[in-house]
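Trying the structure run again after the queue cleared.
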Amino acid sequence: MAVNFPYLDVSNCNASVKVAQNGAQVFGFDRVGEAPVLWVSPSATYEMGKPLRGGMPVCWPWFGVHPTDASMPRHGFAKVMPWELEDFAETGKGVTASSFKLRDTEETRKMWPYRFELTLSVEVSKALKVRLVTKNLDDRPFEISQAISAYFFIGDIEGVEVEGLEGHEYVDKVSGETRVQNGPVVVKGETERIYRHSDSCCLVDKRIGRKIHMNKQGSESTVVWNPWEEKARQIPDIPDDGFRNMMCLAAANGVDEQVVCGPGEVVTLEMKIGLESI
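Done. Tokens:
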């Protein structure tokens, strides 16, 4: 499918990465000679101003449905706005860094009445590090909920589990119940869980034979999502069997962990993805 927006395509001796101007969304991370790390839906729409299903979308300044107006874009407007490439450099052997900016406009202030500056930094080597920095340029404090999501490519959903969430409380958005995780997370049906969890976790993929380590900073929640078969059929930009080859994990500050950012202050959210063969 044609990509109808500008994007940065970077390769070095370790890996390659693609970052769209649309939403500053990473939609490709591939280590040399290995299976893709990120999943992008075969039915994804590559259009400016429209969400791209897969990769690493940025959810900001709200995560999920807008708290008071459900007509607003789900997961905020940052993921569908055009960002500006600010910097690009080789910072070391096999290490490439870039950064993108998004500032408030008349359009954004109609949806969210604050002045701000967002910076998304992307560093690719054998690992991938994505950092989102919020700066309050207003004379009033504001509250944000946010997330950096990662749709990981997997061999098959029935051959993966997530380690590192054991013993943590979570809200099960499918059942509406609050539970505590017992053992690794194994997906056997529609799954949407928000864990109270600020540490790292690991996606173990037995089919491909690797572990994907997700380390994060500035995040009080970890989200685990897979639509499973019935829900996938209801989502236009996911194939009916698309749920089998993807697992979405997000470093988030959800509705219950809104972050207050005072005038002139900054808030940082970071995700680092590393890989290990098994």
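The longest strand covers residues 266-277. Worth checking whether this holds up in the mutant runs.
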